[in-house]
Amino acid sequence: MPIKTYHKIVSILLLVCFTFLFIKDVQAISYPAIVSSTPSPNNLHTPIDSVITVTYNDKVKNVYSSLVKLYEKTSLGFTKEVFLQDVKKDNDSIKLITLNELKLNKEYKVVVPAYVVELNNGYYPHEYTFTFSTNYMEFYELMVLNEAKLTQVLSIYSPRQLKVFTPKRYIEEVHILHKNKGKFEDNQISTDGVTNIDIKTIGTEVKNVHVDIKKDGRLVNKGFARKFNYDSKTGSLNFDIGFSKMPGYYDVIVRVFDMNNQEIDAKIIKFGTTDGKLITDIKETYKYETAGKSFTLQQLLADEKLFNTLMKENEIRKVKVQVNSRP
Question: Among the CATH numbers 2.60.40.10, 3.30.465.10, 1.10.10.10, 2.130.10.10, which is that of 171-285?
């Protein structure tokens, strides 16, 4: 065989091989595939404010949002469907938008059925499911009680990955009007003592408010306050309760409960009558900078004032820590 012919045949064969590899590679790239999801599957300490996403290898053209599901695990399994406000497409991802934050210490399951997500390179042809949990660690345990636990956690996660969650607060104001037994003027008839307590709350989670009256640690009165006004503009809900024959000084313990009868907020107000007055008027208003918010541990370390504010405004045993996973 002439050398020129041999070289020509070799060149053609090489061209065919490269063409075949190129076509195969293009087909592999263009085939719909999932690149990642957040939270990562089986993640144990998923932050409750996480946005659930599934990322594909091409731009998302369409998603049949009503078919994408999120379930919360119950004693019977993943039977409780979590309401999704929307399932949005975002470039090469879909995002599951929940109405409320996820709940602490729960297990969730995401289900994206086959042929529900259309990409530029076609429909994703398989059902995709993954689970994750929202377990938490105690801030008090990590930062106060257990140095070994903190050391272990920091050997796995950086301070930027540790997310510190403060509890929501629901009591905005407590107003106490207390009248001692007696009369205002010498020529008046003496009237009995009476106390009115108004409690202003915020948040749709509030269902009931209970008030305990204690003197020197001893319970002297108690009762559930009654709703009397709701402000739709501010979302505030007002409660009131009355007592008679109250002592001159006492502690008012206000406790707020949700629809599951779980205590979600509490306040203690120390009351004492004003000398020389028949009626004592005390109002305490509460404003918070950190309530119901989350911060990374790195943010708290970088801002001493923020760290101090968080510690002052929150009962440390109610502050939780979760983990932001990285891709």
Answer: 2.60.40.10
